[in-house]
Design goal:
Blueprint: H1 2-16, E1 25-30, H2 31-34, H3 47-58, E2 62-68, H4 72-87, E3 95-99, E4 106-113, H5 114-117
Parallel strand pairs: 2-3
Antiparallel strand pairs: 1-4, 2-4
Length: 119
């Protein structure tokens, strides 16, 4: 009985720790959604942004990678989005911008461990 409790404690502790490997989550933000008027009162209501920030907050050494369409408008969109993330409490060191979204009308947000995202 004592031995089984001794074995179960480490397993329980491991289950409570956040996953570190392969813990990436992907969120999509479409141009139609982003076209809505934006302000400090409205931005926190964007479900995609709120979900990404919530997941970022749960991770250890987590970061947000913003993969945007490669043209100038995509870069402007991603830069504005980064600024909003900063205003919502995500430090700029934890936000990465990468061109090359597969869809010209969509930004992909990848949230997970910084080391995983840099690979």
């Amino acid at each position: 009985m004592f031995l089984s409790k001794l074995i179960m404690l480490p397993l329980l502790l491991l289950a409570l720790l956040p996953a570190s490997a392969n813990s990436l989550r992907i969120f999509s933000l479409g141009a139609d959604e982003w076209a809505r008027p934006r302000s400090g009162e409205i931005i926190p209501d964007f479900v995609t942004l709120r979900s990404a920030i919530d997941y970022w907050g749960k991770g250890t050494n987590a970061a947000i990678l913003i993969q945007y369409p490669g043209e100038d408008s995509g870069e402007i969109w991603a830069s504005e989005l980064r600024d909003w993330f900063i205003s919502l409490g995500v430090p700029s060191d934890y936000i990465m911008l990468v061109p090359g979204s597969q869809d010209a009308d969509e930004i992909t947000l990848v949230v997970g461990n910084r080391h995983e995202l840099k690979q």
